[in-house]
Amino acid sequence: MDFDPPTTLVVAFTALTLIVVATWIALARRVAPAMQRNAWTLRTIGAVALWLGLHAAVASSGIIEGNRMPPPVLFYLGPTMLVGVAFAFSRLGARFAALPLGVLVGLQAFRLPLEMILHALHDSGDLPVQMTWSGLNFDVVTGASAAVLGLVALRRELPTWLVAAWNAMGLALLVTVVAIAITSAPTPLRRFTEGPPVVLPFHVPFNWIVGVHVWTALVGHLIIGRALVARRREVSVAHA
User: Which end of the chain is more exposed for a tag (fewer CB within 10 A), N or C?
Assistant: First the structure.
């Protein structure tokens, strides 16, 4: 499928992707046992490289393209998200849930520059309007609010209800944009027929929007949920 975005946007998206994965590597080092930080860092770098390479290979192969039912791309999106859910609720995910809430919330700030890139892709004629804040995608609110709320949470403790409400909002906006993307892709599920189709998952490096950006957003929200539940239990035990 034809997709030739401006070089500046390819570079910007690649740079943002590398920043997100570098953040995961730094956080993995932070949650590692004190005597195993170097080993954890190397293993994380290896796992990230393998993950990025696998997603690039899948997109380059063309196996997830096709206008048939069920759409092959769903067999790519589904397992990727299931890996994220398994990670978020694993013992390793519990280590990340113990990080300060400001860090966990602030991680979602990457969605602000991501939405700026998506809007620029629309301006260049490579993405339909419904995938931007000029259309139906308001995930920019999550990114902008994450930057502010994360900084505040690093300075003082925020009410649990506020973080929980923000987390629910961000998750809802994430699910919305994924649904819009699925119904804008060139498959039998397409419902948005005006403008170019969404073909990001089929082209490197933009396919990493699934394996890195959507994955990080989903995992981040689930881990914040775990963190809030753990803190509520601690408060209940303290008052028992």
Answer: C
Predicted confidence (pLDDT) per residue in 163-178, tens digit: 999 999 999 999 999 9
Farthest-apart Cα atoms in the chain, separation:
62
* Sequence ranges of the domains in the chain: 7-238
Are the CB atoms for 102 and 154 separated by under 8 Å? yes
Give the tens place of pLDDT for each residue, 74-105: 999 999 999 999 999 999 999 999 999 999 99
Render 130-192 in DSSP notation, one character per residue: GGSTTTT--THHHHHHHHHHHHHHHHSPPPHHHHHHHHHHHHHHHHHHHHHHHTTSSSTT---
Residues near 107 by Cβ (< 8 Å), separated by ≥ 6? 23, 27, 146, 150, 216, 220
pLDDT given at position 238:
62
Number of H-type helices and E-type strands within the chain:
10, 0
